[in-house]
Input
Amino acid sequence: MLYTTHPTPLGDLLLAGPERGVLAWISMPGQKGGAVVGTGWRRDDEAFRDAQEQFDAYFAGDLKEFDLVHATAGTVFRERVWAALDEIPYGSTVSYGALADMAGVDRRAVRAVGGAVGSNPLTVVHPCHRVVGASGSLTGFAGGLDRKRTLLTLEGALPAPL
Output
């Protein structure tokens, strides 16, 4: 597994994947369930240059949609939910129930949808931060609610603090 780190307003993101340019993990410091550098991983600061450039553009407000090659290894259900995350427009939010609908999943499976969102291996790229509670409340971001607020404010889904 190749990896590098990249500084962002969320902290240094860990970018990792099986080969150059193919991402399997993106996680931030202290992220619940996030990737950590494993035995045998090899640092390669050029391996994910395209991702690093896209993150810089995203945090500068110049990129609204990531275009990266990835190789995640989730169940069919989780991959379906992660693909539905990509359908949430920049600058907007959806509830877990609405995400279930988008993924073609029965709304009664909303807890399972939440579990899939919580296990998203490509945080920010698969925009799990855009999923909120049914009442619009900020809930359930593995990187912490302050970071979720930061991302939603950057995208204009929340007003900037005064």
